[in-house]
Write a structure and sequence with these properties.
about 300 residues, alpha+beta, Phosphorylase Kinase, domain 1, 2 domains, 5-stranded antiparallel β-sheet
């Protein structure tokens, strides 16, 4: 459910303090649901103000992520201002620059789409090489701390946290009991892939909607509201799960071509990516079904079945 707007006078006070002597237009973005994100327009510039979800949540880790990635040449929004806690809004806040353009899914040419996704793959390879302490959601309760720390000590604990409950729910919904049994068997067959010595940064929601372009040229990656610490293949698994959902051709090969320019892929990476897609897909499907069966939940069901087939 989409959160209500923050207190408008308090927001206007913040904007007036940050951008004095400028006529700033404030509008809520359509994309933000659990997080309130506002587009600020003034002169010929656009920037975005993000408000933390809870009073106890700090946006310091997110600010640090933007700064580290920006310093490494990854095309992400630059930090304009970070505030640990604004008394009026009763929240932490972060203001960043704009990544110009729109999603690559709006590009009509498949050749241009492939080139844009390949460029994004290089940036993703750098992003996925940033170390994180622990696995799971990045902790936001550290106040001013910019350390990237996650909730779980191991990837296994993160990946299996609610798996049994989720599979029980799917057995009563989108999958038959034999199908759920096959899913469980596939996960058991690839159990060693749940172990990982190190955690790395993941965008957490990486798909075509977050790859931006302008006039057919790659401009960057947006929306770091779901960052987490995972194995290095998490974002590739998420992309693979949604590959083919909005455009006709598969773009994972182009993404991997660019990714290889910045990071090494492990042995059996294609099967490992399918396994990651399976694990991500189960949780995404359960979450989607909270609103009843939809076209998206039916798409995820087909994608999960495809993952099972590819894993053998």
């Amino acid at each position: 459910m989409r959160k209500l707007d923050v207190d408008l006078p308090a927001l206007q006070c913040v904007v007036g303090r940050l951008f004095p002597f400028r006529d700033v237009t404030i509008e809520r973005t359509a994309e933000g649901t659990s997080t309130q994100v506002y587009r600020l327009r003034f002169d010929n510039e656009v920037c975005y103000l993000r408000v933390a979800e809870e009073a106890s949540a700090s946006l310091a880790p997110e600010a640090a992520i933007h700064q580290v990635l920006h310093s490494r040449g990854v095309r992400v929004p630059a930090v304009i201002h970070f505030e640990p806690f604004d008394k009026g809004l009763q929240r932490s806040l972060l203001v960043t620059t704009e990544i110009r353009g729109e999603s690559v899914k709006h590009v009509q040419s498949s050749v241009i789409r492939e080139a844009i996704v390949r460029a994004a793959g290089r940036d993703l390879g750098v992003l996925n090489s940033i170390p994180v302490n622990g696995f799971g959601w990045i902790r936001r309760d550290g106040g001013l701390s910019t350390e990237l720390e996650a909730e779980h000590p191991t990837n296994r604990a993160f990946a299996l946290n609610q798996l049994d409950r989720h599979l029980d729910q799917l057995r009563d919904g989108m999958f038959t009991q034999p199908e759920v049994g096959r899913i469980r068997a596939s996960i058991a067959d690839h159990d060693p892939w749940l172990d990982a010595d190190h955690a790395y940064l993941a965008h957490g929601d990486f798909d075509l909607t977050h790859i931006y372009q302008s006039n057919g040229r790659y401009t960057g990656i947006i929306d770091f509201g779901e960052v987490r610490g995972t194995t290095s293949l998490y974002d590739l698994g998420h992309f693979n799960l949604h590959d083919g959902e909005t455009v006709p051709e598969r773009l994972l090969p182009s993404l991997l071509d660019g990714y290889r320019e910045a990071a090494r892929l492990p042995a059996e990476h294609e099967r490992r990516i399918s396994f990651m897609s399976l694990m991500i897909g189960i949780e995404a499907l359960v979450r989607s079904l909270r609103h009843g069966p939809t076209n998206y939940s039916r798409y995820l069901t087909r994608a999960i079945r495809a993952c099972i087939e590819s894993l053998g």
